[in-house]
Amino acid sequence: MDNYTKRPLVKFHKAAVFYALLLVFSLIFTQALRATASAVLFWFLVLVPILSLIYVLVGNALVRIYVSSSTTKVEKMQPLEYELRIVNASPFAYPFIEAVVSIPENDGVRCTEQSVNMSLAPLAAYSVQRETTFKYRGTYEIGVRCLYISDFLGLFSIRLDAYIYENIMVFPRKLGMDMKTQTSASDIPNDSAKVVFSTEKSEIGNIREYIPGDSQKNIHWKLSSKSVGGTLMVKEFNTNTSRSVYMLCDFSRSIPPEVFEDEDARIAREKAAAEEARKPKEKHVKLKKAKQDKKSLEAERAAKKAQARAKRGLSANRIGDAALVDEQIKAAEKKRRDDEIKSELSMGGVLKTEYANDIDEYCADGMVEMSIGAVLNELNNGNTVTLVWVDKRQKGGIAAVELTCPEDFNVVYPVFATTSPCSEKDNVTTLLPLITESLNVTIRICTSNIDPLSLNRYASIPGLFGGAGSGCVTEVLLFNPEERYTDVKIRREYIEMCRNRLAQDGVDLTELEAAKDESGRYAIRIAAH
To answer: Considering the chain, what is the average pLDDT of its residues?
Structure first.
């Protein structure tokens, strides 16, 4: 995008060079002839810039800009009409006007600044009326940054700063969700927080197998000694804590998958990309020829095999050699594919190239809609939610609010729903120090990032709050855009690997998606695979 703020206040055009040459010529012509006609021409040329300047300044004072839209708040994928009007209220014509406008792109992903050239007759107007739909939520600016008004000869133009915008707030869908969730509270909630350190049998709520990170004080040694294979058993206690949930929402951009590639795979990919950039046409021809050669070779082999079977004198050794060659080709192909799968699994899958431009907006949108459903679900179930997220618009760059009912969420909803994606350095685990409780904590991570680095961070959360056996409930609510990956099966296998990895550390992984219910309305539900 062109950086219009670096343009000068006064900009000279090519016609100014011709004017300067003409002025020098008239000066020489006047001095040489000393005639009345030459003097008139010279003084006319001297007065032209002054008249042009007055002409442009009148335009700057009398050109008006108006921006309007059908609404300033709209849900994504809903139509929105907007209009830009530039009115010439002066009696002079302005044939050379350049306007720097901010308008939505054709795909509705974002607004970009564009340069529009126009010509305004006296007391006339230039209007742009369009209808658009925004694909993603956020705050969009539609309007005019500045005008460049040129004189009648096109010698120069002066910038008129306007900065007239209509701020459009695009909200995500407010989808419902009806799902029972686990909290660190007991089945009979109590408003008074009480941590139980006693080990009396009457206070034991459950006995389960040991999970790494559990406190050794909670191990049931007597039962462990009687278990098959010496499996350690752990006691869980009813705590009667308040029904409080920390909801941490991840607006960070995804880390490029190439970061997690194997070194050999990375080098091979870079070499292939460099070769493709140097000789795209030649590579295309070679690939086409290679496919044709492969088909021809396969046809030739098939024909030879048929002829070989028809001949009675074909020896068993020759048949064995042909079969061996086929097996070697299949083994090499299988090894190549296995290496590709291994490389893609190490990265969490490979995105389709056509989705690379807007993947961050798409994931942030899905995560927000999932978070809204999860927050309202907790509030409707009587839980108190502390909603925390990274927001550069807030002081300190972090927003945190405690919610006790759906009405509380409606107050913060306009701010939360329009938060922009942030840097991958501001990942959701940077918000964990804001949790002041140390035991019986329920933490839900709403995210679309499940790369290997984020996975390790999620797995470490229970250990920061006393371990899974101390009443800490940690759950990752994942928005997984698997349909945007080149191989859905590999992406699915990677997610299952992540689920098993997190389960070993006492962290649950739940995939959520927006799907139609029986009434035809969209709602958040657990993804069905």
So the answer is: 80
- The phi-psi region of residue 374 (left if phi > 0; otherwise alpha if psi is between -120 and 50; otherwise beta) is alpha
- Cβ partners under 8 Å of residue 48, min gap 6: 19, 153, 155
Where residue 479 falls among pLDDT bands split at 50, 70, 90?
Answer: very high
In eight-state DSSP terms, residue 386 is E
Pair 137, 172: CB distance under 8 Å: yes
Torsion angle defined by CA atoms of residues 238, 244, 249 and 255, in that order, rounded to the nearest 10 degrees: -30
Q: How far apart are the first and last CA of the chain?
A: 41
Average pLDDT over residues 108-134: 91
User: For residue 148, what are its two tokens?
Assistant: 């460049």
Tokens of residue 232, six digits: 């350690």
Scored b (16 or more CB within 10 A) or e, 318-337 reads eeeeeeeeeeeeeeeeeeee
Write out the two tokens for 273.
Answer: 């990309």
- For CA atoms 133, 134, 135, 137, the dihedral sign is negative
Alpha carbons within 13 angstroms on the beta-carbon side of residue 21 total: 5
Helix (H, G, I), strand (E, B) or coil at 466: coil
Is residue 79 scored above 60 in pLDDT?
yes
Q: Phi first, then psi: give them for residue 276, nearest 5 degrees.
A: -65, -35
User: 163 — phi, psi (to 5°)?
Assistant: 50, 50
Q: Strands 176-177 and 156-171: what pairing?
A: unpaired
Which class for 387: exposed (0-12), middle (13-18), buried (19 or more C-beta within 10 A)? buried
User: 3-state class of 270 per DSSP?
Assistant: helix
Give Rg (Cα) of the chain: 35
Q: How far apart are CA 467 and CA 439, in angstroms?
A: 9
Q: Is the pLDDT of residue 354 over 90?
A: no
Token pair in block for residue 222: 């007597």
CB under 8 Å to 79, separation ≥6 — which residues?
131, 132, 133
Interatomic CA distance for residues 411 and 405, integer angstroms: 11
288, pLDDT greater than 80:
no
Q: Say which residue the tokens 């945007």 belong to.
A: 484
- What share of the chain has pLDDT > 70, as a percent? 73
